[in-house]
Design a protein that fits this description.
single chain; 221 residues; mainly alpha; binds protoporphyrin IX containing FE
Length: 221
């Protein structure tokens, strides 16, 4: 069977640690210009855009794991899904904290007004809120407690979060719609893949159920 990456590499002891460090790269790239004292025309916008972009990218990467596993016959990729999802949440927390601390300076009344009155903030808030229960229940203990089926149903909220994330992005750009549309296409393909996969499995089950049952042939004495 052809695979692009050797399974042995994917199951290696250090792979998760390397991926973890790579996932911290975007944070370093946001902090670095401040550490170096570079001139940043609009620091708040710089942080808000950096953290927002990476939240969306990590959501897309998390959603891409299942299609990539199936397409390239790499079941080992599942090891990284939880980490990628938690990094999406981590960058979303940074993104929201930037808004809370530097944009609104903890003015809860202003924040509520924003959530209520500005549709792009409303959907962003929804996208973020949906990720909270997913992050909390991402542990093996919670999978056991909820049961696999209920856990999977709950974690489908990531699809809605990603869709809201894209709408949030699209609504806040004025004219440069190319990038949000690109993310919309990516999320669309990843969700369409799941619908296709579900339809295929349903058809297979229906065909298997419709197939004539074989009755065991009695041995002729
Ligand atoms: C999963 C949740 C979220 C995702 C995926 C997300 C994603 C993004 C993206 C991609 C951008 C644009 C970055 C760019 O232009 O390069 C952005 C900007 C922004 N987001 Fe979010 N966001 C989320 C949640 C939130 C929340 C909860 C808030 C606040 C309540 C928020 C407030 C903002 C603000 C104020 C901007 C900047 C708008 C501007 O510069 O005009 N976002 N977000």
């Amino acid at each position: 069977m052809h695979t692009l990456l050797p399974g042995k590499w994917l199951t290696g002891k250090w792979t998760k640690a390397v991926l973890f460090l790579l996932c911290l790269g975007p944070l370093a790239s946001i902090i670095w210009p401040f550490v170096r004292g570079y001139t940043i025309p609009n620091p708040l916008e710089f942080i808000q855009h950096g953290t927002g972009d990476w939240t969306l990218r990590f959501l897309v990467l998390t959603l891409a794991i299942t299609p990539l596993r199936q397409l390239f016959h790499l079941p080992e990729l599942i090891r990284f899904r939880r980490m990628l999802g938690l990094f999406a949440f981590f960058y979303a927390c940074l993104h929201f904290t930037t808004y809370l601390l530097f944009d609104k300076v903890f003015d809860l009344h202003e924040i509520w007004k924003d959530v209520y009155k500005r549709p792009f903030i409303t959907v962003g808030f929804l996208a973020f809120t949906l990720l909270i229960p997913l992050a909390i229940t991402s542990t093996a203990g919670w999978i056991r407690r909820l049961g696999g089926r209920r856990w999977r149903i709950l974690h489908r909220a990531i699809y809605i979060s990603a869709i809201c994330g894209v709408i949030h992005y699209y609504w806040q750009v004025k004219s440069a719609v190319i990038r949000p549309l690109f993310y919309a296409a990516l999320v669309g393909v990843l969700l369409a893949w799941r619908v296709g996969d579900w339809l295929l499995r349903r058809r297979r089950t229906a065909l298997a159920n419709a197939a004539p049952q074989r009755t065991p042939v009695k041995a002729v004495q």
